[in-house]
C-alpha cells in the first residue's frame, strides 16, 4: 500500500529537501549507497571483486534541470572510469547510467543525452568494459531504446534494461533477444498507470517469467536483475532448459540487499554482478529502495524517531 505513496514522494522537491536534510538519514542511506565520492568507492570495488563478485556502477542522480548538470554527470562517470583504469578489472566492473541524468528530459534532450552518454561508452570500451542504460519511467523508454540502438552501431555490447511490469516489454524482449545484445530484466521500480503496466505483484511475476523465457531462448545475453528467490530458481531452470552455460547469463542484485545471496551464487560459479550506487544526489534511488520493502521504511522512520 505504501509503495505508491513513497514513489510519488520520490519525485517531490519538497520531500527531497526535507529528507536529504534529516540528521540521521545518511546513516540509513549508507546501507544502499556506500559512498559519496570516487575515493570512497574504489576500495569497495577492490574488496568486492576480490570476493568473486562483479559490479555495475551507478553515479546517483536523475531528473536534472540544466545542461551543465548533464555535463557534470558525464564527467563524474569519466572520472570513475579513469580511476578504474588502473585496477585493470575489465568487464568485471561495468557502468549503469540513467539517461535523465544526461539531460534526456531537457529541451533537445534526446540528442543531448546521446551526446553526453557516448563519451562514457567510449571510455568504458577503452578499459575493456561496457555500459548498460537503466530503464526509467515509461515515457522515457522510446528515447532510451533509440539511443541504445544508436550506441550499439559502434559499441554492440552496450546493454539496456527492460521492466516486466510494462505491457510493452514482451515485444521489446523479442526484438532485443538477438545475438550480441545484453539485456537486464527487472520487475520495474517506478509508479506506472494501469494503462501501461501490471499493478499486481503476481501479474508482474508471471510476466517476468514469460519475458525471461524469451531472453533465455534467444541469442542475447540475459542479465537477471532480481532478489526474488523464486525467480532466481526459475532463471536457473530456464537457463538449463535453454542449454546455456554458466557464463552465458548473469545474476544482478543491488548493493545492500541479500548480500549473502550475492556470495552464494558467486560461490556456485554464477556470474553475480552487484549494482553499486554512489554519490551525493541519492534521494530518488534511496526512495525507490524504501518503496520496494515496507520494512525499510519502518527502519528509516524508527531511526529518525530515536534520534
Ligand atoms: P521483490 O519481490 O520486490 O523482492 C524480492 C525479495 O528481495 C524481497 O522479499 C526482499 O527480501 C528483497 N528485496 C527486494 N527489494 C528490497 C529492498 N529495497 N530492500 C530490502 N530487501 C529487498 N528498476 C527499474 O525500473 N529500472 C532499472 O533500470 C532497474 N535496475 C535494476 C538493477 C538491478 C541490478 C536490480 C536488482 C534491480 C533494478 N531495478 C530497476 C529495480 C527493480 O525493478 C525492482 O524494483 C527491485 O529489484 C525489487 O524487485 P525484486 O525483483 O528484487 O523482487
In brief:
The chain has 307 residues and is of the alpha/beta class. It is 50% helix and 13% strand. The longest helix has 19 residues.
Features:
alpha/beta; binds flavin-adenine dinucleotide; 8 strands; Proline_oxidase; single chain; 50% helix; eight-stranded parallel beta barrel; TIM Barrel; globular
Provide structural commentary:
- InterPro entries: FAD-linked_oxidoreductase-like, PRODH_bac_arc, Proline_DH_dom, Proline_oxidase.
- Its EC number is 1.5.5.2.
- It comes from Streptomyces pyxinicus.
- The chain is α/β, with parallel strands linked by helices and 307 residues long.
- Helix content is 50%, strand content 13%.
- It has helices at 2-9, 13-21, 25-29, 38-50, 67-85, 109-126, 141-154, 169-176, 201-217, 229-241, 259-267, 283-292, 294-305; strands at 54-59, 93-97, 131-133, 159-163, 182-186, 221-225, 250-254, 272-278.
- The chain has an eight-stranded parallel β-barrel with strand order 1-2-3-4-5-6-7-8, surrounded by seven helices.
- The longest helix has 19 residues, at 67-85.
- Residues 134-135, 161, 163, 186-190, 225-228, 252-254, 257-258, 275, 289, 292-293, 296 line the site of flavin-adenine dinucleotide.
Amino acid at each position: 500500500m505504501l509503495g505508491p505513496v513513497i514513489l510519488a514522494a520520490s519525485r517531490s522537491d519538497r520531500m527531497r529537501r526535507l529528507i536529504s536534510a534529516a540528521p540521521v538519514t545518511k546513516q540509513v542511506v549508507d546501507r544502499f549507497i556506500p559512498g559519496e565520492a570516487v575515493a570512497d568507492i574504489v576500495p569497495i570495488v577492490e574488496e568486492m571483486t576480490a570476493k568473486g563478485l562483479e559490479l555495475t556502477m551507478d553515479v546517483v542522480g536523475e531528473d536534472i534541470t540544466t545542461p551543465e548538470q548533464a555535463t557534470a554527470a558525464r564527467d563524474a562517470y569519466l572520472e570513475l572510469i579513469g580511476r578504474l583504469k588502473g585496477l585493470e578489472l575489465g568487464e568485471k566492473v561495468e557502468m549503469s547510467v540513467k539517461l535523465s541524468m544526461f539531460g534526456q528530459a531537457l529541451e533537445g534532450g534526446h540528442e543531448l543525452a546521446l551526446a553526453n552518454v557516448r563519451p562514457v561508452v567510449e571510455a568504458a570500451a577503452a578499459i575493456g568494459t561496457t555500459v548498460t542504460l537503466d530503464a526509467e519511467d515509461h515515457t522515457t523508454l522510446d528515447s532510451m531504446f533509440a539511443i541504445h540502438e544508436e550506441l550499439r552501431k559502434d559499441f554492440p555490447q552496450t546493454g539496456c534494461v527492460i521492466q516486466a511490469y510494462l505491457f510493452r516489454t514482451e515485444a521489446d524482449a523479442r526484438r532485443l533477444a538477438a545475438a550480441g545484445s545484453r539485456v537486464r530484466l527487472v520487475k520495474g521500480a517506478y509508479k506506472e498507470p494501469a494503462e501501461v503496466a501490471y499493478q499486481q505483484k503476481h501479474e508482474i511475476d508471471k510476466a517476468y517469467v514469460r519475458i525471461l523465457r524469451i531472453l533465455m531462448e534467444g541469442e542475447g545475453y540475459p542479465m537477471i536483475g532480481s532478489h526474488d528467490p523464486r525467480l532466481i530458481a526459475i532463471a536457473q531452470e530456464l537457463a538449463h532448459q535453454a542449454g546455456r552455460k554458466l557464463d552465458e547469463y548473469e545474476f544482478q542484485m543491488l548493493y545492500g540487499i541479500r548480500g549473502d545471496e550475492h556470495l552464494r551464487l558467486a560461490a556456485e560459479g554464477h556470474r553475480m554482478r552487484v549494482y553499486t550506487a554512489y554519490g551525493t544526489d541519492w534521494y530518488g534511488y534511496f526512495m525507490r529502495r524504501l518503496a520496494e520493502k515496507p520494512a525499510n521504511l519502518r527502519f528509516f522512520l524508527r531511526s529518525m524517531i530515536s534520534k
